[in-house]
Amino acid sequence: MPNKIGILTYYWPPSGGSGVQRWLKFANELSDIGNDVHVFTFKNSKYPVIDNELYKKIKNIKVNYISGFELPNFITSRNSKPSESFGRSSNFIDILLDYTIVRVLLAIREFFFFPDSRKYLISSAVKYISEYNKKHSLDCLITTGPPHSMHLAGLQLKKELNIKWISDFRDPWSNFFQNKLLNKFSSTQLKHERKEKEVVEFSDVVFTTSESLKNRFQEFNKNTHCIHSGYEKLIEPKSHDKFRILYAGSMKLIQNPKNLWIVLQDLISSDDSFKKFVEITLIGNIDDEIYNTKEFKKIRDRKIISYMSKEKLNHEISISELLIICSVNLNGSGDIIPGKFFHYYSSGKKMIAITQKGSDLEKIIDENNTGKSFEFQNTEDLKRYIINCFNDYVSGLKTTYDIKEKYLTSNIAKNISEIISKI
After folding, report:
1. Of 303, 258, 249, 311, which Cα lies nearest the Cα of 53?
2. Rounded mean pLDDT of 183-207?
3. How many helices (H) does the chain have, and how many strands (E)?
4. pLDDT tier at 273 (50, 70, 90 boundaries)?
5. Nearest to 66 by CA among 143, 122, 1
6. CA-to-CA distance for 418 and 214, rounded, in angstroms?
7. How does DSSP classify residue 139?
8. pTM of the model
9. 110, 192 in Cβ contact below 8 A?
10. Cis amide bond preceding 146, omega within 30
11. How far apart are the C-alpha atoms of 413 and 411, rounded to whole Å?
12. CA distances (Å), 56 to each of 33, 34, 52, 60, 313, in order?
């Protein structure tokens, strides 16, 4: 018997970027296998990236748009870079004023907008879904975060309606690196931990995207599952006349792989053959401060492309030889497997991960033999690996790995549907 499934998500077309992909894919797959899928999202949301092409991806899904208040952009956008002004002005008063404004905005956000800047969407979501449920009697509601305000809406609906509820953590909450960077008071961190625990305990089921986060949440809820984001279809490799090294997606300053830039510049300057054939391409939103780092400035032979649709990106991946993933360079933040891994994975191309030792990303790369992982300070091993990959390319040796069907989103959706049926 099909399930009537509600999905509350902030990120939905026309949102581009990584946040929208997981439940856009799963919603379609759940519908394809006979479930009745109802999506709840918001009108006029402030998405950092727009991709209108994604509207074409929506299949037999009922999409509901909720009206709600969001904070102005001047509060949500200036959230982590008080140091930018130091490089732009020599006027001490201007520098001090800009720094003070940023710190005030951060303090306002930390103390008055818990758990995040989308908190004023909670009441609107609860009211809308409560009325909707009276008419449609949902079998299950899934909330996905970040923003983790979506989970607080789910928590309230669970308490008021006793609806069957799944909380889906695409990223950690209390351990999320952005919270660590934004929140400066221990009391705020404790508040996040308490509310996260309450959400996990009250959920009928909890989904995570990594094994280590699943293991941590199982201390509060035994019905916690690691549900990987998966891939939709294979990307067929295509020939190219360059040894192409590709990074795709956003890259924040805290992800900056300085060791990679150092190694690439060293190889370009010392090996004429490498210099002739290498092609370094970055696609997506790269932090401006990364461009200004001395390590990146030395890389002259590189191409930077702004955000592009997933279909176009598939072509860029298909002609590349090495695919780069960068975790967050922050202790204790290794419990994330980016959805990008599975997008890369579907191509069979080698990956290089710059990540912490023992991270979930390192483990899944090792388990599936998709490439190698290197710590942020490791240059020698990274250099040797890139040289080996380049020598394979020059000699015409094609190396790949077995792509497992268990990571197909259609198979993962069947697992999700079975879990919902057992609640």
Report:
1. 311
2. 89
3. 17, 13
4. very high
5. 122
6. 18
7. S
8. 0.89
9. no
10. yes
11. 5
12. 19, 20, 8, 11, 16
Pairing of β 302-305 and β 322-326: unpaired
- Percent of the chain exceeding pLDDT 70 equals 88
Burial class of 60 by CB neighbour count within 10 A (0 to 12, 13 to 18, 19+): exposed
* Res 187: pLDDT: 79
pLDDT for res 78: 41
Here the tokens at position 423 are 């609640």
Q: Is the pLDDT of residue 204 over 80?
A: yes
Helix (H) or strand (E) holding 303: strand 302-305
Whole-number Å distance between alpha carbons of 170 and 24: 13
- The larger pLDDT score, comparing residue 339 to residue 109, is at 339
User: Can you name the residues that pair with 371 across neighbouring β-strands?
Assistant: 351
What are the tokens at 419?
């879990």
Q: Domains of the chain by range and CATH?
A: 4-71+114-230+408-421 (3.40.50.2000), 74-112 (no CATH), 243-405 (3.40.50.2000)
Considering only the C-alpha atoms of the chain, give the largest distance between any 2 of them, rounded to a whole number of Å: 70
Rg (CA), the chain: 22
| pLDDT exceeds cutoff 70 at 250 | yes
